[in-house]
Amino acid sequence: MHRSRVKRTLLTTLALVLAFAWAFPVYWMLNSAFLPNVVLQSATPTFLPFGGSFDNLVSVATDGSFGQALTISLIVTLTTVVAAIMIAFLGALAISRFRFRGRASFVLALLLIQMLPAEGLFIAQYKMMSSLGLLNQAIGLAVLYTAAVVPFTIWMLRGFVAGVPADLEEAAMVDGLSRTKAFLKITFPLLAPGLVASAVYAFLQAWNEFTVALVVMTEEQSRTLPLWLRGFVQASASRETDWGQVMAASTLVAVPVIIFFLIVQGRMSSGLVGGAVKG
Amino acid sequence: MIRRLPIVALTSAALVLTACANGGDSSDTPAATNSTSNAGKTITLWLAGGDTPDELRTYLSDTFKAKTGATLKIEEQAWPDLVTKLTTSLPDAENTPDVVELGNTQSPTFTNVGAFLDISDQYDALGGDKLLQSFVEAGSVDGKKYALPYYFGSRYMFMRKDVWKEAGVNPPTTLDEFNAAVTKVAQENPRHIKNFSGFFIGGQDWRNGISWIFANGGDLAKKENGQWVSTLSDPNSLKGLQQLQTIQKTASNAPADAKDQTPWLYVNDNDVVTDADGKPTGKTSLSAATIMAPGWAHWSIGDAAKKDGKVVREWNDKKFGTFVLPGNDGKPAPVFAGGSNIAISAKTQNPELSKELMKIIFSPEYQQKLGGAGLGPANSDYVSSLGDDEFAKALIDSASNSKLTPAAPGWAAVEASMVLEEFFGKIEGSNDLAALAKAYDAKITPMLNGK
Amino acid sequence: MTTGTTTAPTTAMAGTPQRANRPRRNRLPLILIIPSLVLLISALGYPIGWQIVTSFKQYGLMQQFGAPAPFVGLDNYKALVTDPYLWTVVVRSIVFCIVTALVTVAIGGAMAVLMNAVSTWARVVLQVALLVAWAMPVVAAMTVWIWIVDWRRGLLNWALVRLGVDGAEGHNWLAEPLSFFVVASVIIVWMSVPFVALSIYAGLTQVSTEVLEAAALDGANGLQRLRHIILPLIAPVLSIVMLLQLIWDLRVFTQIKLLQDAGGVTNETNLLGTYVYQLGTGKGDFGTASAVSILILGLTIALSAYYVRSLMKEDV
Known about the structure:
The structure holds 3 protein chains of 3 kinds. By secondary structure, chain A is mostly helical. Chain A contains 12 helices and no strands.
């Protein structure tokens, strides 16, 4: 594909402009995290945090409750990711490699579950968790999150699994490998990017969820990060909302995700190549 | 179980000896203050938002422990999420918080659905009729008391003294004077600021706007023959609404959709950078000569200054002033009282301990501490503990005549449906206030009596 | 999508998966979906069941605290269906979701094509920017966006005024419903494009370059290649992405709620998500809120019926 230089430069510029536009709010969040509240409320925006300080970030991070909320969030989220991937993977294998009675119903059910709004469910979810004694337990929340994430993850993984032709295993078996070994040596590595992509999706869902966590994690020490963040966005009788702190707290919540993201980014783009969305 | 008995006996003996050594509190019921039996127990108190300062929370925990031997766990809930959490947790006997703080406007709704324990028997001991009666009503049904006042706040006016002076207007002494004064200040606009407001009141800001309804003798709703009816279109209410409309048109340049958040932004100069002469070099964000805000807003009003390396707001007496919205009858205008109630969950597993906590909260010491922290104590005997600086005076004055939203069972639903915001947002542009008010009465009345 | 070929393996080891054309011995797939079934039924069964049942009851705050909840049959649904406000919200939501989804997919698709056309480093920069935007927590993102459109201190007005648009000073972007929804749409497009762009890009990279080169040699220009070769090949990708966007945008809640808190008239800007919340948590009318949720489910199915059916058929 031969493009003229001018065209290439234009396209590159366009790409950079778009990149800037999309990353701008993230930059703004970082910028605001370094500025004191009074400056943030001024009518004139401050673009670069010169003269700013780490005060907000430090005060928010050393709050004591941050470490706790971070731990809880990590436990809940990682449990969710691991469980969801395992369960969804098996399910995806089933529906993409096999034909069986009830398959269409299963796939349809998965789709329907995703279409039901989740906002009305929290009352019932609370009652359920309470009667099982799972309130304020990371495992309880993880179960709810896993169930919420699995339907879409099965869909995503189904495409990836289908994208790896069964013939490859065939060929390996003709060469003398057992079925299981063939699967592990040939098919599975090809699925790795897809698994990673699904894992990232599941991670995000669990990491940022708010309403169910609010209702099920009722005690302060079992708060997840979104609940912890919420505590900063509140005025009270003794102080107004300190937006610098809010942004610093938001940065702390966002940064682990972004780091995790960037680490797996390489594998992920090739993962999305397999395509959840290949249909 | 049998194997545990000796251990239990030993522990009890040890605790009894400790209790004896400390000397007991003799004036309370033996069961609730029996340190031995309470040693392992914990009750939970939910406080809403950050209003109760840490010092008071520590006092509560320490005093509770000393008095009863049990532990007090305090959990803070964010205001926006409080109703959600109360809805799910209160009915759940195993996990319910024992004592909860909730907004005074939320109290009627939760009281009416039976969320709270009947504490009529404690009422007199806790302060009886000395407690703020409008709040007591919000937490009563058929004369029985469930939710009592925790603290009250109030709203008053914050003004830019310097701007008023430059406009040549004196602080008003009656409501009519106020209405005229803010219009004049807006018209004079001595600093030639774009979109300047003599008095900044957001279009959808009903919490401040209803002061005009109240001040003219009107109300949001009343109880007629056992049923609640919305009274926005009553003659007195309409009079107030008309005054409000005039203010919105001539004195306020606030957006029609503004609510009552962060009004102090408009009164501050907000400039951090000053040149050698002390003149601000950035663009000023001053855009109002007067705002109406809850008392605690004063912490956010003033000049930006550095204190301990942090930038804070310092009140400047030459620039800023406070006054109470005056009525036309020589008394302060009735404004919307802010504040919270406190109640014991109906499903609590520890009613006796919870009642002990209530006693501590309503004790003279704690009431005075509330006053010291700028929160109006429920018991009128201790209101003087608020102090006598200008903020305390303004708080006490404006609260003396304050009103609550109607104690109707469906009031929380009315607030949740945002219908008042909608109504108030339409006032400025309306040509027929009476018809508008009637239309909204028709919407609100069915909601008031709850389902 | 591949399923089994007709050649069966000659060795059958214990626990090895069977070929799909041997249904009579096919218990393995059922075993594979058991974990999913167990999880979904135990974690979602009760809440979904409760919601369906409650939609047929009168269930308000009183019932939450122990009052009996009488069955009222279809009363909740009847009250909803005859309430003109619900239909206003429904129409608004449908329009909003279609417009937003279309814009998202269009921009995402265009970005994907762009990523395919630029040099590696530019593409990586763009991809990283998209990923970083996608990873930002919704609350933090909304705080920044609300700041940007704030009528007094917002970046948007400040920039517009700098560019000479004086009327922009103090302009309130959230006051008028139409403007409110444009802002909401921009925000949601911003949040959704990364996933769409990256997915479509993935699909694009699988389009064989040889076919495209052959077409170019035959004289087809860029646009023609796009229309006649690329689009048909990535059609499955596009349609599923579109479907997902429709589902998600119809139910959007957090972004709208936070915008409503910041400005605008709530009842003029309600979409289905916030309406359910208002009924449920706000008014405590959980019976009606459940009925609305079921209605939303029905609506989503209706909107996507065509696609779902073709998906099920293709899924042979």
